[in-house]
Amino acid sequence: PTLAANITPASQAAPTFDPNPSITYGTYVPPAPTNTGMAPLVWSLGTGSTASTPAITPSGMLSYTSIGTVVVQACYGVTQDYLASPVSSSLGILVNPASLPVTGVIAINKIYDGTTSAALAGTPSIAPGLVNNDTTSTVVLAHSVASFATAKVGTNIAVTTAFTISGSAAGNYN
Question: pTM of the entire structure?
């Protein structure tokens, strides 16, 4: 005889994550859960963020728009075989400032004068290191101080620089 029975969708637990994840400003990849569901993760925005609200891209990635803590919610979605997670998991992600390299400058050789002061040549640029649609209008490079590591005569002496930045997005970089 042919019998009939039902197969109902299985339930899924809420996703769990490593505590206190930390990323760098400009990083878009959301953290992976430590437990795996059978359906894709569905992200939504949580409450309690100290950073600007992130955007969720069409591909499900998270775009962080400033440094600080971003709170997001995640649950497993629905598939033919699985029900959605009954509860979303809240996740606070610490978004750290991004490093901002300065390119386009070189240190100039000098004649011994007993000081460590150094001069730079070239046109400094930060544009290649900007992320999240930041521009040289929102992050402005300011004057630098340059110093030789020693005032003694020598070759290939390290020169340190101290550029400063300002602007509406400058706080997202170090």
Answer: 0.69
Q: Which residue in 150, 152, 151, 148 sits closest to 160, CA to CA?
A: 148
Look at residues 88, 67, 72, 59 and name the one whose alpha carbon lies nearest to residue 139: 67
Structure tokens at 122: 């070239």
* DSSP tag of 3: -
Dihedral angle computed from the Cα positions of residues 36, 40, 46 and 51, in that order, rounded to the nearest 10 degrees = 90
Which of 14-28, 68-82, 89-103 has maximum average pLDDT? Answer: 89-103
Residue 113 C-beta-side C-alpha neighbours within 13 Å: 10
Number of H helices, E strands in the chain: 0, 10
Name residue 24's beta-bridge partners.
96
Among candidate residues 82, 71, 60, 80, the one with its CA nearest the CA of residue 13:
82
